[in-house]
Amino acid sequence: MLTGxxxxxxxxxxxxGDHLSARIRRLTVLAQQVFGDEARAQVWLTEPQPHFRGKxxxxxxxxxxxxxxxxxxxxxxxEERIFRDPRGLQP
Length: 91
Description:
By secondary structure, this protein is mainly alpha-helical. It has one domain. 63% of the residues lie in helices and 0% in strands.
C-alpha cells in the first residue's frame, strides 16, 4: 500500500536529498509524458489525494520503495498509451 512516511534515518542528509531530488525529477518527467502537459502533471503530483489519506504523490514518493512503485505505474501507463497510438504523440 502506498502510505509513505519519511523514514530514511540510516542515510546522510545530503545523500537523501540527492536521491529525493532525482526521484522528483524522474516522476515529473514520467507524469508529463503520461498527462501530456506540465501543468496537469504538476497538479497530479502535488494535490492531496483522498485515496492516500490526503497525501500528494510527491509526499508518498519520499520513500524510495513507494517512489519506485509510482514510477513503474507511470511507465506502464505510458507504454500502454504508446502501443495504443503507434505515433505515440497523443495522450
